[in-house]
Amino acid sequence: MKRLFPEQVDNYAVLTTSELIESVRRVSLVLEREAALRFSFSIDGLALEAAGSEQAQAQETIEAHLHGEDTVVSLKPSFLLDALQAVHSEFVRISFTKTENPNKPGPVLITSQSSKDQPGADNYRYLLQPNLLLR
Question: Where in the cell is it found (predicted)?
């Protein structure tokens, strides 16, 4: 269990919970039922991208405070929304764990944040396995 929930992750982003929820809902409207959203975290913020059928596409950028290196993950929006709706704080931290295989992304760890700089006081932790990115 400790291996799945690391004590410290150096690569993470802090976002406003409500802004992320609304953005995921809007961008995922063009997706097929089981498709995943592409999340690109950088110093400029978070870019969400969705490519649906019939040339339908959506893209949006929101503010994110990244600590560590640029990261791209692909997540199913329904699972992410479940996790975010259980976060009862203004901010949320999305941490990017690593695996032994550099080609396989580690689970994304979602926790609450009291402020942009302060972790949440609760013990809420949610692991979400990213989809493999299609290059």
Answer: Cytoplasm
Name the CATH topology of 12-128. DNA Polymerase III; Chain A, domain 2 (3.10.150)
Closest to 93 (Cα-Cα) out of 75, 69, 119, 70? 119
Give the tens place of pLDDT for each residue, 2-14: 566 777 788 999 9
pLDDT, tens digit, 9 for 90 and up, residues 47-93: 999 977 677 889 999 999 999 999 999 999 999 999 999 999 999 99
Residue 96, beta-bridge partner list: 108
Distances (CA, A) of 42 to 3, 28, 58: 26, 20, 19
